[in-house]
Amino acid sequence: MNLTQKLALAWLTTFDKSLFLFTSLKGLNTIFRYSFYISLVLTLCFVILKFEAIINIRAYDIPIFIQNLLIVLGLGVKFLTIIFTIGIFSYESIYNLDINKYLIEQKQKEEFIKKNKLQKWRLRNINILLRVTIYIGLWCFLYLLFEDILISSFFSVYGESPSKEIYIQFLIDYDKTIKYFTAIYLVSIAILDFFVRKNRKAKKFPEETTQETLGEKSE
Known about the structure:
This is Putative membrane protein. By secondary structure, the chain is mostly helical. It folds into 2 domains: about 5-95, no CATH class; about 125-200. Helix content is about 75%, strand content about 0%. Helix 3 (about 30-55) runs antiparallel to helix 4 and helix 6 packs antiparallel against helix 7 (about 165-200). The longest helix has about 35 residues, at about 165-200. It starts with a helix and ends with a helix. About 5% of the residues are buried. The model is unreliable at about 210-215 (pLDDT under 50).
């Protein structure tokens, strides 16, 4: 299975689950299909260029940050438009494949993954490097939150101008607190990751070659 077919199947199973676009385009004559593709591209280009001409963001008296944000959103719309058209065009590579059989296999695979808890978002199914990154990111978030709570509490109790002795003592206590917090966090994460690796399942969905699954119809 080539890259175009993978893209088409990914688009089909993600955005066209009802098969409305697929069946509608498949039923058309090749000439009409390509005419539709050309019309789609021209229409989208016309609409985007027309909107850019009408809505000149730089002409409005709004903050630069908002202008840049709107420009980024506009680029995002263009990117999504390109993805949409590429997904539609890639359907041409799978019209001769047995899509129904592929969808049945995908459904069985999803049920197998759900039954055996093999979803990629589950912590035990995530790569060790990514898990470490998540642990570090969580520590940074908790550290900043904890730091904000401690500093806010300190100034709410002692005011905006505490004495030098109180401030030094706070820094010492703050340093100890952060060290204790980090130690407890590391121990907790170590225990958590131990059970994550212990409960990690090696089950995999029985692989069926895509050529066998999708190629029977074309044969």
